[in-house]
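Dissemination and training. As part of the outreach component of the grant, students in the summer workshop were shown how a complex can be specified as a set of sequence lines and then modelled as a single object. The example used during the hands-on session is reproduced here so that future cohorts can follow it. Participants entered these lines:
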Amino acid sequence: MSSKHRSNQRKPVKINLNKSLRVWTAVCCLSGGLVASFATLAQSQTPDTDIAVSSYPSDSPEAWLAKMANAFTSLNYQMSFVLLKPGMNAQPYLWRHGIAPDGTSMEQLNLLNGPGREVLRVGNEVSYFEPNVPPYTLRSTIINGPLPMAFFRDPLQLSGSYEFMLVGRSRVSGRAAQQLRVVSRDKSRFGLNLWLDQETGLPLKMNRVDLQGQLLEQIQVTALDVTAEADDYFSRIELAKLPEVVTFPPSPRSSHQWQIDFMPTGMQLVKWDVHRLPITGDVVEYVMLSDGIVDISIYLQPASASRVTEDVLLRHESDTFLSRRQGDAHVTVIGKLPAQTANAIAASVKLVTP
Amino acid sequence: MSQQHENLSALIDGEQHDDGLIDAVSQDAELAAKWQRYHLIRQGLRKELPPNGQFDISAQVAAALNEEATVLAPKQRRWQDLPVVAQVLPLARQGGQFAIAASVAVAMVLGVQQINTQDPTEPFNTTQPQLPGVQGGMSPVSLEQTRPLQQTDMLEQRRRINAFLNDHRQQMQLRTIEPVADEQQAQEQPAQASEDQPE
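and obtained this result:
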């Protein structure tokens, strides 16, 4: 209630915020345990933060996102979070980030339930340790997981396709948090509700919501620990024992000429190849689009080759699955996006025979 | 009855000499079995058990279980489809003497496993036909293209949907291989710049 109230009245907000900020810092200074770590933090981080944030007004959503991106890559932190999706058990994760003495950024994401799944990023090499699969390493700057890491790293590149709004402040995971809303400008994609830690700018909670504001997926941080030094875990890693980097040979392009006329603004072509599906063994032409917040898979099959007969639209967990006949092609679109957008993309596919 | 058991225990411990009780033991089969078990327990406690003791009980339990096996595991459902059961049941068959413990373990493991399983490889059940249309776990999204599926095509349709969903997950997993070359160069420079600043 109070957050809505604040966002409606723009002027008084600043005064309130400043006042409460002062109160908050006072409270912070009184609470003994946290002081040491935050004090060192503040000292070490001020130069970076100033530069990134200074180009925006201090109470703008852009300044907050810049602060988040900065904290994301420059702080030593450890957090536990829980991923909640419909039709699925809660998944607890441990997420650590540390800067090694030589300046290498190291990151670990660990699924804590069941057989587990551990991902370790050292610089630009990401190693995946998963059950039933031999460990492998990919050259990449981000970890693939439940968090939209590409968005966290560089949120402001999305300003063309998403609108950022400051909503209000609340308490999340026992800490003061600033709420932001990330909304698709053309309503072609789902939005995010983001709660950032007031002190550090790190994300504390993230809701993915559909166009009506209904919750689709939730990530809730349960514990956040920011330290001056990187966690001991990172110093124990034996770099020589990490799996070798996997490189994929460029896959053959098919003789068919496809054309996708509609791509939501800000979406980029990430991947385009031909491969076989795991269960059925069907050969498909595959396209991946991404804007950093969502990844969309598009599968193309000539209608003659495809044994698919029916058009299907369904929701699996938070993914939308759309499969439809489009002229001479059969198009399948999967991703966390509204059905209308999936349909618009599928409808824009054309098969141009050479 | 429990008084008799206590007396029996005392007799075995050498604290009581009651000829009537010894007679009772020799006549009552149940008491005789108890007598045997008490001795077994005593030997166990004193670590006097032979290294490979032949315990009658396990054989009896196994025999009893073999007779009941058809009732316990009706074959209507294909248990081979359940990953854990498929692995545990053959084990339970091998060691008849472990059958009871194993079946309890199956229940426990199943319970635990159900909590722990995540990301099923086939989110849509392709094993047995069900009613057409929307099933549990999915919520319908209304769009003109949606039509109820034909019963005959259901399994094939679901297999295909599973294949697509699996592949989508796999592709998400292997993402950022190809943009790395560009992204790396783009991101290395600001990274270096920010590293330089604090020093």
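The longest strand of chain A covers residues 215-227. Students were then asked to discuss how this feature might be tested experimentally.
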